[in-house]
Design a protein that fits this description.
heterodimer, A: alpha+beta, two-stranded antiparallel sheet, 2 strands, flat, B: alpha/beta, Rossmann fold, eight-stranded mixed sheet, 12 helices, 8 strands, globular
Chain lengths: ~90, ~270
């Protein structure tokens, strides 16, 4: 990613950096058979299932593939909505 | 000692597999090891011309497999390096003339009387590739620092792993330090980070390679230029030596700058 200053002065990103970023995505797809579009569908399904049990903000959910050497890991970051005080008190009583 | 079988492969064509095979064979033979290289690219043979042995072919790999000659008869001995032999590919047949088990049998027969068996794989991931890796004990994947070659290398590294022949080791060929410095070519660290495998060699782009291939004299025969040194270093690493990687990124000194100026002026 170009830095803020680079963008401010309209500096073109280096082509090698673009190549690296593009390859990162392509290799994840090739290794896992999981395209960016598949990943979006997966995210929608996960949001639906989790929402049945706990309140979440769909817009804040982040699903990505992390690399550990040549192994890939699906990483889901799902912030939970805070329970309101009223609800909590009721639960305690 | 029983010979070790090493396969050089890449997925993508044109990245320098044959050049790497020829030069590693020469480097290993120069240090006195007995080397047999096998051209696995049936139908599109080239290891013979790169080694400068094309005029001496009588029998080939398929002749051996189909029993028309003995293994010894198909081995061309390099007159410059008596310890170097080539088993050429057949030119008028296709990949299906040889099977993976044929390759295993052939290498088992060669092993007792040699130190290294280098197999030059064809491009692709089909039958020719399967044949080439069948007998391999170690696999070297050659790539160039550009998107399509890196992507294909990743695919091949994955296939090698799934065949339980891994982990493959990586050779990054044709690195251009000027483009790298300018940010217009992936550098070795980028490629390594993307592919996450062990590196065994970095070879700079070098005009001498083209000229030496024209002559049929692999560049490792004269180890003075950078590419020749890089090949010699890989051969040493294969033999178990610890050799630091060449620093291709060094800024040219005053002499280098002057000679560059003269070269530019002369062109």
């Amino acid at each position: 990613m170009p830095s803020f200053i680079d963008r401010l002065i309209g500096k073109q990103p280096k082509s090698a950096d673009l190549a690296k970023d593009r390859l990162k995505l392509v290799l994840v797809n090739d290794r896992t058979d999981l395209t960016q579009i598949n990943l979006e569908h997966l995210k929608d399904d996960i949001i639906r299932v989790i929402s049945k049990h706990v309140e979440i903000d769909p817009a804040a959910v982040c699903i990505s593939v992390a690399q550990d050497g040549r192994e890939q890991r699906l990483v889901a970051n799902i912030p939970l909505k805070p329970v309101t005080r009223k609800k909590r008190n009721r639960a305690r009583a | 000692m029983s010979g070790k079988v090493i396969t050089i492969t890449s997925g993508k064509g044109g990245v320098g597999k044959t050049t790497v095979t020829a030069n590693l064979a020469v480097s290993l033979a120069l240090s006195g090891d007995r080397v047999v290289c096998i051209d696995g690219d049936i139908g599109l043979r080239n290891l013979d011309v790169v080694l400068g042995l094309e005029n001496r072919i009588v029998y080939d790999l398929v002749d051996v497999v189909e029993g028309r000659c003995r293994l010894r008869q198909a081995m061309i001995r390099d007159k410059r390096l008596p310890e170097l032999h080539l088993i050429p590919a057949a030119q008028t047949r296709d990949k299906s003339s040889v099977s993976p088990s044929d390759m295993v049998r052939l290498c088992d027969e060669l092993k007792p009387e040699t130190d290294w068996i280098l197999i030059d794989s064809p491009a692709g991931i089909e039958r020719g590739f399967r044949n080439a890796i069948a007998a391999a004990e170690e696999i070297l994947v050659v790539t160039n620092p550009e998107v399509s070659a890196v992507r294909d290398a990743d695919r091949v590294i994955g296939l090698v792993e799934s065949e339980e022949k891994g982990p493959a080791k990586l050779i990054i060929n044709r690195v251009n330090p000027v483009l790298t410095r300018r940010g217009d070519m992936l550098n070795a660290e980028d490629v390594l980070e993307l592919l996450a495998v062990e590196l065994i060699g970095i070879i700079p782009e070098d005009d001498h390679v083209v000229a030496s291939t024209n002559r049929g004299l692999p560049i490792s025969l004269d180890g003075k230029c950078k590419a020749g040194q890089a090949f010699t270093n890989i051969a040493r690493r294969l033999r178990g030596d610890e050799v630091p990687f060449l620093n291709l990124d060094e800024k040219p000194g005053l002499l280098g700058k002057i000679s560059r100026l003269i070269r530019v002026g002369g062109q």
